[in-house]
Amino acid sequence: MRIYSTISSPMRFQIRLIPTLAMLLGLAVLVTLGAWQSGKGERLAQELAQRAERSQLGPSVVTGQLLDGASAHDAPFTVVGTYEAEHQIFLDNRQENDQPGVHVITPLKIEGSETRILINRGWVGWTQGRSVLPVVATPTGRVQVTGLAAVPSTKKFFLMPDHPEAPNKLWAKLDMARFQNLLGHPLQPVVLQQTGGDAPDTLVRHWPPPEDRVGKHRGYAFQWFGMALALVLFYLFACFRKGESV
Fold first, then answer.
1. What is the pLDDT of residues 154-187, one digit of tens each?
2. This model's pTM is above 0.85
3. What are the residue ranges spanned by the domains of the chain?
4. What H or E segment, with its residue span, contains residue 174?
């Protein structure tokens, strides 16, 4: 009878070029995605904290001097002046409680200057068809308006026209440069979303804060970073191979 003894071959670490390059490429992609989601979460957290902090402050007064849009965003302001109803427009495709409607945008000439500021006076339903615009009365004389400053988005959306639709009082999006050319006067870089109870009308003024998606973005970042770690561990495990039997 013969007795054979089997001695396990020692494990050795072996790096191969193609798998290593593939791992590094995948790692770069996963880490980049994780950093992107983490950055979005941090920026949103800062925006929400800034909005909450500014909401505790009293409104600043808007004068004819142009504001810095980025610094003024989400801050409360009050302004005195007179509406220019002849330049009033409507922003299309604005819903409230799942009802179709428009936002009423009216320029206001700031008292004591030639500078204008756009006032988003609120939402009104629009149910009579696209050929008939809503009828909205505009206050005359000197008015005081209080609200939150907002910088209109400059993003372009697929299939959304760059120019006002017919009739030309209906706009798909608010273009500040085009509005300034329309007015022919200096224009503040923000739109004041009216919040005060100083308006004698029935427009709906509902300006919800940005959705708190900080936790969701951080969760996505954790998933991407976790996948990156798993990829590295799998690569290291795969690099260990049995050596030659002795």
1. 665 544 555 545 457 889 888 898 899 888 899 9
2. no
3. 14-46+215-242, 59-194
4. none
